[in-house]
Write a sequence for this structure.
């Protein structure tokens, strides 16, 4: 399978994830113009994304075993799908089409190449990854489960520090709510 993004590009943008996040926060603060109704529409989308991320984190033992339970039964990248939903919800809540476009561009230009790198890493780490990848789509979920029906493990949620995503969302939500005040 030929990679969609050249490896040097994917390696470069993988290092940009954190700095890009800080730039996105600054753009979010500057360009958001929320109102009560936009918060009511956007926040549930973001909360759905956070729930998906939390569920995924409770099934992910990084570099120890191939995650194929929980949401990994439906999509190989539930953490990134959850991130996309959180960003979409915040863009809706912020009432800024420009932020929606910026979040989309960052996802395509940075996160998709990172997903590709992670797939290469998983292929080298786990021999069963190719068969798993043939059964489970990369990002958009399938509606039937394929994989291990194991239960959520709260210890993995904590080990993966997924509570940081919830804290970040809460800060953004409070900021948007504050901007709606007269």
């Amino acid at each position: 399978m030929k990679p969609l993004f050249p490896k040097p590009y994917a390696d470069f943008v993988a290092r940009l994830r954190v700095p890009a996040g800080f730039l996105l926060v600054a753009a979010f603060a500057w360009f958001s113009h929320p109102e009560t109704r936009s918060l009511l529409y956007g926040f549930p989308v973001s909360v759905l994304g956070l729930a998906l991320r939390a569920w995924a984190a409770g099934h992910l033992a990084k570099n120890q075993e191939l995650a194929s339970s929980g949401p990994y039964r439906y999509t190989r990248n539930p953490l990134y799908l959850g991130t996309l939903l959180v960003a979409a919800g915040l863009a809706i809540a912020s009432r800024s089409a420009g932020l929606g476009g910026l979040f989309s561009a960052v996802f395509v230009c940075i996160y998709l190449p990172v997903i590709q790198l992670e797939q290469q890493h998983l292929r080298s780490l786990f021999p069963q990854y190719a068969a798993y990848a043939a059964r489970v789509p990369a990002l958009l979920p399938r509606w039937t489960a394929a994989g291990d029906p194991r239960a959520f493990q709260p210890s993995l949620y904590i080990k993966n520090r997924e509570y940081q995503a919830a804290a970040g969302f809460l800060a953004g939500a409070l900021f948007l709510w504050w901007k709606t005040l007269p």
Observations:
- The radius of gyration is 17 Å.
- Residues 97-125 form the longest helix (29 residues).
- The chain is about 65% helix and 0% strand.
